[in-house]
């Protein structure tokens, strides 16, 4: 057990108590079937492309990877699945985390991530990675502010088209998150003291949200702001062309800059990524 893990376990237990759930590892076939059904209900995928299969869940649990479930009474209402990432002694990759409609608004997702963090620290792991859609504002806030994680890379069309209720069948660009489990920002966030970014006065915008549409702006500054849409899921349903334009503009704003060394250092209360260019 690492020195940080006792405190991490306490914070995880406190978060679960606040959410009103019990969180534990899941390994029995019946519970894994329930977990798989929960994910299907959340993502509503094409029948031929489920998020996971019961067989794969069974193998992951059996081989010591992370399969955790959040229970409200006896009902499974949230779950997270992760697997050891190369090198296996250093990191866990959290492949999927979801909370069912019956438990949303209770901070179950936060409790799951803190349970996953404590689990990883107990096994000597230093970080957890995962991917998320950079267009989903609430997920950006959750990952960068509430958890204190930081994006490491921009991954264009990482999964290929995913025809489900959430992704809508378009390109699946993702930000790869690195959660440094004992980092200062992470410790503060997990203790309930998140730090939203406050950009400096000289920050410029390279992508602006103008009446729901993405408008690129030319800027040459060491710190730039990248807006996000207020409701990308609503756009995918109501205005798919605008949603696709947001994907294109976000890729233009982030992909090359991050590949060139720029780093996302935070997320503002107004829904903007703070992107800093390395100084010469």
TrEMBL record:
Keyword Transferase included in the entry's annotation: yes
Keyword match Acyltransferase: yes
UniProt keyword list: Acyltransferase, Transferase
Signal sequence interval, chain numbering: none
Pfam families: Acetyltransf_6
EC number per UniProt: 2.3.1.-
SUPFAM superfamilies: Acyl-CoA N-acyltransferases (Nat) (SSF55729)
GO MF term (any one): acyltransferase activity
Residue span(s) of domain N-acetyltransferase: 21-167
The protein's enzyme class: transferase
Protein name according to UniProt: GNAT family N-acetyltransferase
């Amino acid at each position: 057990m690492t020195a940080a893990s006792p405190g991490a376990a306490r914070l995880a237990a406190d978060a679960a108590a606040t959410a009103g759930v019990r969180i534990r590892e899941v390994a029995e076939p019946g519970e894994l079937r329930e977990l798989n059904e929960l994910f299907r209900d959340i993502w509503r995928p094409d029948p031929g492309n489920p998020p996971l299969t019961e067989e794969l869940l069974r193998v992951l649990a059996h081989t010591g990877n992370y399969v955790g479930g959040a229970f409200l009474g006896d009902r499974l209402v949230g779950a997270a699945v992760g697997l050891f990432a190369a090198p296996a002694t250093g990191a866990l990759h959290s492949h999927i985390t979801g909370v069912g409609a019956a438990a949303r608004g209770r901070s179950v997702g936060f409790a799951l991530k803190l349970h996953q963090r404590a689990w990883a620290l107990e096994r000597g792991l230093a970080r957890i990675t995962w991917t998320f859609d950079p267009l989903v504002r609430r997920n950006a806030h959750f990952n960068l502010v509430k958890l204190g994680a930081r994006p490491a890379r921009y991954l264009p069309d990482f999964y290929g088209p995913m025809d489900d209720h959430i992704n809508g069948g378009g390109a699946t660009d993702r930000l790869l998150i690195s959660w440094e489990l004992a980092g200062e920002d992470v410790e503060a966030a997990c203790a309930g003291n998140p730090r939203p970014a406050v950009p400096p006065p000289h920050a410029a915008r390279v992508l602006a949200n103008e009446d729901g549409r993405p408008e690129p702006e030319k800027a040459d500054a060491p710190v730039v702001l990248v807006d996000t849409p207020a409701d990308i899921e609503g756009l995918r349903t109501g205005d798919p062309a605008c949603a696709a334009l947001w994907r294109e503009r976000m890729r233009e704003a982030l992909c090359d800059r991050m590949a060139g060394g720029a780093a996302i250092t935070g997320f503002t209360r107004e829904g903007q990524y703070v992107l800093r260019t390395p100084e010469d």
